[in-house]
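Hello again, I could really use a second opinion on something today. I've been puzzling over a protein and I'd love to understand its fold better. I'm sending you its amino acid sequence along with the C-alpha coordinates. It would help a lot if you went through both lines with me. I've dropped the whole record in just underneath, so have a look.
***
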Amino acid sequence: MTALPPAFETDIAAVQRIEAVTKILEVVCRTTGMRFAAVARVTDSRWICCAVRDEIAFGLVPGGELKVESTLCHEIRQHREPVVIDHVAQDAVYSGHHTPAIYGLQSYISMPIFLADGSFFGTLCAIDPDPHVLNTPETLGMFKLFAELIGFHLNVVDKLALSEADLSDERKTSELREQFIAVLGHDLRNPLASIAAVARRLRKAALSEEEFGYLDLMQNSVRRMAGLIDNVLDFARGRLGDGLTLTRTAQDLAPVLQQVVGELQAHAPGRQIDLVLDLKRPVDCDPARIGQLLSNLLGNALAYGDPARPITVSAETGLTQLELSVTNHGAPIPPEILGKLFQPFSRGAGQGNQEGLGLGLYIASEIGRAHGGMLSATSTVDETRFVFRMPLV
Protein backbone atom coordinates (compact mmCIF):
# COMPACT_ATOMS: atom_id res chain seq x y z
CA MET A 1 0.00 0.00 0.00
CA THR A 2 1.49 3.35 -1.05
CA ALA A 3 1.72 6.19 1.43
CA LEU A 4 -1.29 8.47 1.49
CA PRO A 5 -1.13 12.26 1.57
CA PRO A 6 -1.25 13.68 5.12
CA ALA A 7 -4.80 15.01 4.60
CA PHE A 8 -6.13 11.50 3.98
CA GLU A 9 -4.18 10.10 6.92
CA THR A 10 -5.81 12.77 9.09
CA ASP A 11 -9.28 11.84 7.80
CA ILE A 12 -8.70 8.12 8.46
CA ALA A 13 -7.44 8.85 11.98
CA ALA A 14 -10.47 11.07 12.66
CA VAL A 15 -12.90 8.30 11.66
CA GLN A 16 -10.93 5.70 13.62
CA ARG A 17 -11.24 7.83 16.76
CA ILE A 18 -15.03 7.69 16.60
CA GLU A 19 -15.85 4.74 18.87
CA ALA A 20 -19.37 4.45 17.49
CA VAL A 21 -18.19 3.64 13.94
CA THR A 22 -17.32 0.02 14.74
CA LYS A 23 -20.74 -0.52 16.31
CA ILE A 24 -22.45 1.26 13.41
CA LEU A 25 -20.86 -1.06 10.86
CA GLU A 26 -21.83 -4.09 12.97
CA VAL A 27 -25.44 -2.95 13.27
CA VAL A 28 -25.59 -2.16 9.53
CA CYS A 29 -24.47 -5.68 8.64
CA ARG A 30 -26.62 -7.46 11.20
CA THR A 31 -29.83 -5.59 10.49
CA THR A 32 -29.59 -5.67 6.68
CA GLY A 33 -27.85 -9.01 6.10
CA MET A 34 -25.09 -7.25 4.16
CA ARG A 35 -21.64 -8.70 4.72
CA PHE A 36 -19.46 -5.72 3.86
CA ALA A 37 -19.81 -2.19 5.24
CA ALA A 38 -17.40 0.71 5.18
CA VAL A 39 -16.90 4.41 5.77
CA ALA A 40 -15.09 5.92 2.79
CA ARG A 41 -13.43 9.28 2.16
CA VAL A 42 -14.33 10.25 -1.39
CA THR A 43 -12.89 13.12 -3.40
CA ASP A 44 -12.94 13.88 -7.12
CA SER A 45 -9.85 11.74 -7.57
CA ARG A 46 -9.60 9.29 -4.62
CA TRP A 47 -11.72 6.65 -2.81
CA ILE A 48 -10.07 5.79 0.53
CA CYS A 49 -11.34 3.31 3.11
CA CYS A 50 -11.45 4.84 6.62
CA ALA A 51 -13.20 2.00 8.50
CA VAL A 52 -14.50 -1.38 7.38
CA ARG A 53 -16.34 -4.54 8.38
CA ASP A 54 -15.57 -7.27 5.84
CA GLU A 55 -17.22 -10.70 5.99
CA ILE A 56 -16.79 -11.50 2.27
CA ALA A 57 -12.98 -11.26 2.05
CA PHE A 58 -13.24 -8.18 -0.15
CA GLY A 59 -9.72 -7.29 0.94
CA LEU A 60 -10.02 -3.65 1.98
CA VAL A 61 -8.49 -2.30 5.18
CA PRO A 62 -8.37 1.26 6.54
CA GLY A 63 -6.12 3.17 4.17
CA GLY A 64 -6.99 0.85 1.27
CA GLU A 65 -8.03 2.45 -1.99
CA LEU A 66 -10.33 1.78 -4.94
CA LYS A 67 -10.25 3.58 -8.28
CA VAL A 68 -12.79 6.29 -7.66
CA GLU A 69 -14.18 6.03 -11.22
CA SER A 70 -15.02 2.38 -10.60
CA THR A 71 -17.29 3.18 -7.65
CA LEU A 72 -20.85 4.39 -7.29
CA CYS A 73 -19.61 6.68 -4.53
CA HIS A 74 -18.01 8.78 -7.27
CA GLU A 75 -21.46 9.43 -8.67
CA ILE A 76 -22.93 10.02 -5.21
CA ARG A 77 -20.33 12.72 -4.61
CA GLN A 78 -21.61 14.50 -7.70
CA HIS A 79 -25.39 14.20 -7.24
CA ARG A 80 -25.22 14.10 -3.37
CA GLU A 81 -28.06 11.60 -3.06
CA PRO A 82 -28.07 8.03 -1.64
CA VAL A 83 -28.08 5.01 -3.95
CA VAL A 84 -29.99 1.86 -2.99
CA ILE A 85 -30.09 -1.36 -5.03
CA ASP A 86 -31.96 -4.41 -3.77
CA HIS A 87 -31.08 -6.67 -6.69
CA VAL A 88 -28.70 -5.48 -9.40
CA ALA A 89 -29.84 -8.05 -11.96
CA GLN A 90 -33.43 -6.77 -11.72
CA ASP A 91 -32.66 -3.06 -11.40
CA ALA A 92 -33.65 -0.98 -14.42
CA VAL A 93 -30.98 1.63 -13.78
CA TYR A 94 -28.00 -0.35 -12.52
CA SER A 95 -28.31 -3.79 -14.10
CA GLY A 96 -25.83 -2.76 -16.78
CA HIS A 97 -23.70 -0.47 -14.65
CA HIS A 98 -19.95 -1.06 -14.61
CA THR A 99 -19.56 -0.96 -10.78
CA PRO A 100 -21.64 -4.08 -9.98
CA ALA A 101 -19.90 -5.91 -12.82
CA ILE A 102 -16.42 -4.97 -11.59
CA TYR A 103 -17.01 -5.93 -7.95
CA GLY A 104 -19.50 -8.77 -8.38
CA LEU A 105 -22.19 -7.25 -6.17
CA GLN A 106 -25.94 -7.76 -6.30
CA SER A 107 -27.09 -5.48 -3.49
CA TYR A 108 -25.76 -2.04 -2.60
CA ILE A 109 -26.59 0.91 -0.38
CA SER A 110 -24.58 4.09 0.11
CA MET A 111 -25.46 7.23 2.05
CA PRO A 112 -23.50 10.48 1.65
CA ILE A 113 -21.71 11.91 4.70
CA PHE A 114 -21.69 15.69 4.91
CA LEU A 115 -19.77 18.03 7.19
CA ALA A 116 -21.31 21.01 8.98
CA ASP A 117 -20.43 23.43 6.17
CA GLY A 118 -22.29 21.23 3.67
CA SER A 119 -19.15 19.85 2.08
CA PHE A 120 -19.09 16.21 1.01
CA PHE A 121 -16.81 13.99 3.09
CA GLY A 122 -17.58 10.52 1.76
CA THR A 123 -20.07 7.71 2.21
CA LEU A 124 -21.39 5.07 4.57
CA CYS A 125 -21.86 2.12 2.25
CA ALA A 126 -22.62 -1.60 2.29
CA ILE A 127 -22.39 -4.26 -0.44
CA ASP A 128 -23.11 -7.95 -0.81
CA PRO A 129 -22.80 -10.49 -3.64
CA ASP A 130 -26.36 -11.62 -2.89
CA PRO A 131 -29.57 -9.58 -3.20
CA HIS A 132 -31.11 -8.05 -0.05
CA VAL A 133 -34.16 -5.93 0.67
CA LEU A 134 -32.72 -2.48 1.44
CA ASN A 135 -35.06 0.09 -0.03
CA THR A 136 -37.31 0.48 3.03
CA PRO A 137 -38.01 3.56 5.16
CA GLU A 138 -36.46 1.88 8.21
CA THR A 139 -33.17 1.01 6.49
CA LEU A 140 -32.88 4.36 4.72
CA GLY A 141 -33.67 6.17 7.99
CA MET A 142 -31.07 4.15 9.86
CA PHE A 143 -28.36 4.84 7.25
CA LYS A 144 -29.24 8.55 7.17
CA LEU A 145 -28.99 8.87 10.96
CA PHE A 146 -25.73 6.92 11.08
CA ALA A 147 -24.24 9.07 8.29
CA GLU A 148 -25.31 12.22 10.15
CA LEU A 149 -23.78 10.89 13.38
CA ILE A 150 -20.44 10.19 11.67
CA GLY A 151 -20.46 13.60 10.00
CA PHE A 152 -21.29 15.24 13.30
CA HIS A 153 -18.46 13.49 15.13
CA LEU A 154 -16.03 14.59 12.43
CA ASN A 155 -17.24 18.16 12.92
CA VAL A 156 -16.81 17.86 16.68
CA VAL A 157 -13.21 16.69 16.26
CA ASP A 158 -12.49 19.75 14.13
CA LYS A 159 -14.34 22.09 16.46
CA LEU A 160 -12.59 20.81 19.56
CA ALA A 161 -9.19 21.11 17.85
CA LEU A 162 -9.95 24.65 16.72
CA SER A 163 -11.43 25.56 20.07
CA GLU A 164 -8.37 24.33 21.92
CA ALA A 165 -6.21 26.65 19.83
CA ASP A 166 -8.66 29.53 20.20
CA LEU A 167 -9.01 29.06 23.94
CA SER A 168 -5.26 29.36 24.40
CA ASP A 169 -5.42 32.72 22.62
CA GLU A 170 -5.81 35.78 24.83
CA ARG A 171 -8.21 37.27 22.29
CA LYS A 172 -11.03 34.80 22.95
CA THR A 173 -14.30 36.61 23.64
CA SER A 174 -17.35 36.02 25.76
CA GLU A 175 -19.44 35.47 22.61
CA LEU A 176 -17.11 32.64 21.51
CA ARG A 177 -17.41 31.01 24.93
CA GLU A 178 -21.19 31.18 24.90
CA GLN A 179 -21.43 29.80 21.37
CA PHE A 180 -19.05 26.96 22.14
CA ILE A 181 -21.01 25.90 25.21
CA ALA A 182 -24.25 26.13 23.24
CA VAL A 183 -22.82 23.84 20.55
CA LEU A 184 -21.73 21.30 23.14
CA GLY A 185 -25.02 21.41 24.99
CA HIS A 186 -27.41 21.31 22.03
CA ASP A 187 -25.79 20.03 18.85
CA LEU A 188 -23.89 17.15 20.45
CA ARG A 189 -27.02 15.68 22.00
CA ASN A 190 -29.34 15.82 18.98
CA PRO A 191 -27.67 13.09 16.84
CA LEU A 192 -27.29 10.93 19.95
CA ALA A 193 -31.01 11.21 20.64
CA SER A 194 -31.71 10.16 17.04
CA ILE A 195 -29.53 7.08 17.33
CA ALA A 196 -31.19 6.15 20.63
CA ALA A 197 -34.58 6.51 18.95
CA VAL A 198 -33.52 4.22 16.09
CA ALA A 199 -32.27 1.63 18.59
CA ARG A 200 -35.59 1.68 20.42
CA ARG A 201 -37.45 1.26 17.13
CA LEU A 202 -35.25 -1.60 16.01
CA ARG A 203 -36.04 -3.44 19.23
CA LYS A 204 -39.58 -3.83 17.94
CA ALA A 205 -38.35 -5.63 14.82
CA ALA A 206 -38.10 -9.41 14.50
CA LEU A 207 -34.37 -9.71 15.19
CA SER A 208 -32.29 -12.65 16.31
CA GLU A 209 -30.74 -12.93 19.75
CA GLU A 210 -27.38 -12.03 18.24
CA GLU A 211 -28.84 -8.95 16.57
CA PHE A 212 -30.40 -7.84 19.85
CA GLY A 213 -26.95 -8.24 21.36
CA TYR A 214 -25.59 -5.77 18.83
CA LEU A 215 -28.39 -3.38 19.70
CA ASP A 216 -27.31 -3.67 23.36
CA LEU A 217 -23.78 -2.74 22.29
CA MET A 218 -25.15 0.19 20.36
CA GLN A 219 -27.23 1.45 23.28
CA ASN A 220 -24.27 1.05 25.65
CA SER A 221 -22.22 3.18 23.23
CA VAL A 222 -24.97 5.79 23.28
CA ARG A 223 -24.92 5.79 27.08
CA ARG A 224 -21.13 6.17 27.15
CA MET A 225 -21.21 8.97 24.59
CA ALA A 226 -23.93 10.76 26.57
CA GLY A 227 -21.66 10.61 29.62
CA LEU A 228 -18.75 11.98 27.57
CA ILE A 229 -20.92 14.84 26.34
CA ASP A 230 -21.99 15.68 29.90
CA ASN A 231 -18.37 15.72 31.04
CA VAL A 232 -17.19 17.86 28.12
CA LEU A 233 -20.07 20.26 28.71
CA ASP A 234 -19.26 20.56 32.41
CA PHE A 235 -15.59 21.05 31.55
CA ALA A 236 -16.52 23.84 29.13
CA ARG A 237 -18.78 25.49 31.70
CA GLY A 238 -16.06 25.31 34.34
CA ARG A 239 -13.27 26.62 32.14
CA LEU A 240 -15.14 28.90 29.73
CA GLY A 241 -18.33 29.95 31.44
CA ASP A 242 -19.34 30.94 34.94
CA GLY A 243 -18.52 27.61 36.53
CA LEU A 244 -20.74 24.69 37.45
CA THR A 245 -24.25 25.71 38.39
CA LEU A 246 -25.95 24.28 41.48
CA THR A 247 -29.61 23.97 42.44
CA ARG A 248 -29.37 23.45 46.15
CA THR A 249 -32.09 22.07 48.38
CA ALA A 250 -32.27 20.25 51.71
CA GLN A 251 -32.32 16.67 50.48
CA ASP A 252 -32.37 13.13 51.80
CA LEU A 253 -29.45 11.78 49.80
CA ALA A 254 -30.16 8.08 50.38
CA PRO A 255 -32.51 7.61 47.37
CA VAL A 256 -30.11 9.57 45.12
CA LEU A 257 -27.11 7.46 46.06
CA GLN A 258 -29.10 4.21 45.87
CA GLN A 259 -30.26 5.07 42.35
CA VAL A 260 -26.70 5.79 41.16
CA VAL A 261 -25.40 2.53 42.61
CA GLY A 262 -28.33 0.62 41.11
CA GLU A 263 -27.76 2.06 37.64
CA LEU A 264 -24.04 1.23 37.60
CA GLN A 265 -24.68 -2.18 39.13
CA ALA A 266 -27.06 -2.90 36.22
CA HIS A 267 -24.28 -2.16 33.75
CA ALA A 268 -21.79 -4.31 35.69
CA PRO A 269 -23.91 -7.24 36.94
CA GLY A 270 -20.90 -9.38 37.73
CA ARG A 271 -19.37 -6.88 40.15
CA GLN A 272 -20.05 -6.62 43.89
CA ILE A 273 -20.91 -3.11 45.07
CA ASP A 274 -21.62 -2.69 48.79
CA LEU A 275 -23.56 0.41 49.82
CA VAL A 276 -23.28 1.57 53.44
CA LEU A 277 -25.44 4.54 54.42
CA ASP A 278 -25.61 6.40 57.73
CA LEU A 279 -27.44 9.59 56.76
CA LYS A 280 -29.12 11.02 59.84
CA ARG A 281 -30.16 14.38 58.40
CA PRO A 282 -30.98 16.09 55.11
CA VAL A 283 -28.07 17.66 53.24
CA ASP A 284 -28.22 21.13 51.67
CA CYS A 285 -26.82 20.34 48.22
CA ASP A 286 -27.57 19.89 44.55
CA PRO A 287 -28.70 16.23 44.59
CA ALA A 288 -28.23 15.72 40.85
CA ARG A 289 -24.66 17.00 41.06
CA ILE A 290 -23.88 14.84 44.11
CA GLY A 291 -25.28 11.88 42.15
CA GLN A 292 -23.01 12.81 39.23
CA LEU A 293 -20.01 13.01 41.58
CA LEU A 294 -20.72 9.52 42.93
CA SER A 295 -21.36 8.17 39.43
CA ASN A 296 -17.95 9.41 38.26
CA LEU A 297 -16.18 7.97 41.30
CA LEU A 298 -17.96 4.63 41.11
CA GLY A 299 -17.46 4.41 37.36
CA ASN A 300 -13.75 4.98 37.95
CA ALA A 301 -13.65 2.22 40.57
CA LEU A 302 -15.42 -0.22 38.22
CA ALA A 303 -13.00 0.61 35.42
CA TYR A 304 -9.76 0.34 37.36
CA GLY A 305 -10.47 -1.77 40.46
CA ASP A 306 -9.88 -5.50 40.83
CA PRO A 307 -13.03 -7.09 39.35
CA ALA A 308 -12.78 -10.02 41.74
CA ARG A 309 -13.03 -7.85 44.85
CA PRO A 310 -15.94 -5.74 46.13
CA ILE A 311 -16.32 -1.98 45.86
CA THR A 312 -17.65 -0.15 48.90
CA VAL A 313 -19.69 3.04 48.68
CA SER A 314 -20.17 4.73 52.05
CA ALA A 315 -21.98 7.92 53.04
CA GLU A 316 -22.56 9.40 56.47
CA THR A 317 -23.55 12.69 58.01
CA GLY A 318 -21.70 13.75 61.12
CA LEU A 319 -22.22 16.81 63.27
CA THR A 320 -20.52 19.18 60.88
CA GLN A 321 -19.91 17.44 57.55
CA LEU A 322 -21.02 14.95 54.94
CA GLU A 323 -18.52 12.25 54.06
CA LEU A 324 -19.01 10.22 50.88
CA SER A 325 -16.40 7.64 49.90
CA VAL A 326 -15.76 5.00 47.24
CA THR A 327 -13.22 2.26 47.99
CA ASN A 328 -11.86 -0.36 45.62
CA HIS A 329 -8.95 -2.78 45.57
CA GLY A 330 -6.21 -3.49 43.06
CA ALA A 331 -2.82 -2.16 42.06
CA PRO A 332 -2.02 1.09 43.91
CA ILE A 333 -1.87 4.36 42.00
CA PRO A 334 1.75 5.59 41.83
CA PRO A 335 2.40 8.74 43.91
CA GLU A 336 3.43 10.77 40.85
CA ILE A 337 0.07 9.97 39.25
CA LEU A 338 -2.01 10.37 42.41
CA GLY A 339 -1.23 14.07 42.65
CA LYS A 340 -2.54 14.71 39.12
CA LEU A 341 -5.75 12.67 39.22
CA PHE A 342 -8.04 15.67 39.53
CA GLN A 343 -6.50 17.55 36.63
CA PRO A 344 -8.47 17.55 33.35
CA PHE A 345 -7.53 14.87 30.80
CA SER A 346 -5.45 13.07 33.41
CA ARG A 347 -5.07 9.27 33.43
CA GLY A 348 -3.27 6.83 35.64
CA ALA A 349 -0.37 4.71 34.44
CA GLY A 350 -1.43 2.03 32.00
CA GLN A 351 -4.90 3.53 31.60
CA GLY A 352 -4.53 5.05 28.15
CA ASN A 353 -6.71 2.40 26.52
CA GLN A 354 -9.64 3.00 28.84
CA GLU A 355 -12.83 4.69 27.66
CA GLY A 356 -13.49 8.36 28.28
CA LEU A 357 -11.63 11.65 28.04
CA GLY A 358 -10.00 11.72 31.47
CA LEU A 359 -12.51 14.31 32.72
CA GLY A 360 -14.56 12.27 35.20
CA LEU A 361 -12.44 12.86 38.30
CA TYR A 362 -11.86 16.49 37.35
CA ILE A 363 -15.62 17.08 37.08
CA ALA A 364 -16.19 15.28 40.39
CA SER A 365 -13.59 17.52 42.01
CA GLU A 366 -15.24 20.64 40.56
CA ILE A 367 -18.65 19.52 41.85
CA GLY A 368 -17.11 19.10 45.30
CA ARG A 369 -15.49 22.52 45.08
CA ALA A 370 -18.78 24.15 44.02
CA HIS A 371 -20.37 22.72 47.19
CA GLY A 372 -17.62 24.19 49.34
CA GLY A 373 -16.14 20.74 49.91
CA MET A 374 -13.10 18.82 48.78
CA LEU A 375 -12.41 15.53 47.05
CA SER A 376 -9.26 13.62 47.98
CA ALA A 377 -7.68 10.28 47.10
CA THR A 378 -5.39 7.81 48.82
CA SER A 379 -3.98 4.62 47.37
CA THR A 380 -2.03 1.79 48.98
CA VAL A 381 -1.48 -1.89 48.30
CA ASP A 382 -4.55 -2.54 50.46
CA GLU A 383 -7.04 -0.16 48.85
CA THR A 384 -7.69 2.92 46.75
CA ARG A 385 -10.13 5.32 48.39
CA PHE A 386 -11.75 8.52 47.13
CA VAL A 387 -13.37 10.67 49.81
CA PHE A 388 -15.61 13.70 49.37
CA ARG A 389 -16.20 15.88 52.42
CA MET A 390 -18.41 18.96 52.56
CA PRO A 391 -19.54 21.10 55.49
CA LEU A 392 -23.13 20.83 56.69
CA VAL A 393 -24.60 24.28 57.10
